[in-house]
């Protein structure tokens, strides 16, 4: 173990986990994200010439093509922010629970935020963007507390396997409750069903501006929790012996993930599997040190969601597939692979 509480890893176990290797991979991820952003602006259901793209980036909307590009710009920004938030939230949750299956979707956090928003719309007629975000964050937090409480019952406390099972059961239950709340309300059913698929279409700079403060606070709390997560990775007893206040460290890190997942769900709907897939991939590049893993997960999540959005526009022309569908197609097989390759006693 190193002084920062991270298990040393040789190049055979974590390829590219040396400092120079991680730096190169970080630059590569940034370059990949830049390329994907260009593709996201340039590619869509309507073909647009490069002169129109350049003109639209300069603020002109004199033609249909330029107007189409002007719509894609905030959509691309939202995909980057939402993907980074979900990737980072997934890495935090896996670190807090020491569970390779942890993810805002699998642990019920996204669905808790979704249920809270649906109840707010159906029963309390909330309409403002700020109200959506606050309700979603509170719902995500309440769901996280509920899942952790259920997973802590019985012998052994909150084991990773019990947390995963509690989260899966909670997600299913909350999903059923969403349907029960929406069914009698035909006036909102169509909009709610579309939002629940999860997507970044219809993004505007105004909507992004509403959610940006919540994401900024979530990003700050999460990234500042990196050293504490390194300590928690050693186990609660050893972390406490090193002077770490385990409960406080876990709660603060979880708060950052809840803010990120709740705010993203409020504006995009419940998008699954990004927080599951990305941290596993990033560990192959950055190793297990959360000081590197968290930034890598944010960049990886941004790349994945932006790529999923571009892919959804290309494969379904002249229509499009929402990113929630594309990430599910990618994430579901990956989830099955993790379960098959992870021994139950290690969960």
Question: What is the secondary structure topology, with strand pairs?
Answer:
Layout: H1 19-42, H2 50-57, H3 64-97, H4 109-124, H5 129-152, H6 160-182, H7 186-197, H8 205-224, H9 226-232, H10 236-241, H11 246-268, H12 274-286, H13 290-315, H14 323-341
Helix pairs in contact: 1-3, 1-13, 2-3, 3-8, 3-11, 3-12, 3-13, 4-5, 4-6, 4-11, 5-6, 5-11, 8-11, 9-13, 12-13, 13-14
Broad shape: globular
Identify low-pLDDT runs.
1-16, 343-347
- Share of helix, binned: over 70%
User: How many domains in all?
Assistant: 1
- By DSSP (H or I, 4+ residues per run), the number of helices equals 14
CATH architecture: Orthogonal Bundle
Give the mean pLDDT.
87
Largest sheet: none
Number of strands: 0
Q: How large a portion of the residues is in β-strands, by DSSP E?
A: under 5%
GO cellular component, one term: plasma membrane
Protein name: Iron ABC transporter permease
Subcellular location: Cell membrane
Keywords: Cell membrane, Membrane, Transmembrane, Transmembrane helix, Transport
General description of the model:
The chain is mainly α. The protein has a single domain, classed as Orthogonal Bundle (ABC transporter involved in vitamin B12 uptake, BtuC), CATH 1.10.3470.10. It is built from 14 helices and no strands. The chain has helices at 19-42, 50-57, 64-97, 109-124, 129-152, 160-182, 186-197, 205-224, 226-232, 236-241, 246-268, 274-286, 290-315, 323-341. Helix 3 (64-97) runs antiparallel to helix 13. The longest helix is centred in the first third of the chain and has 34 residues, at 64-97. The chain starts with 18 loop residues before the first helix and ends in a 6-residue tail after the last helix.
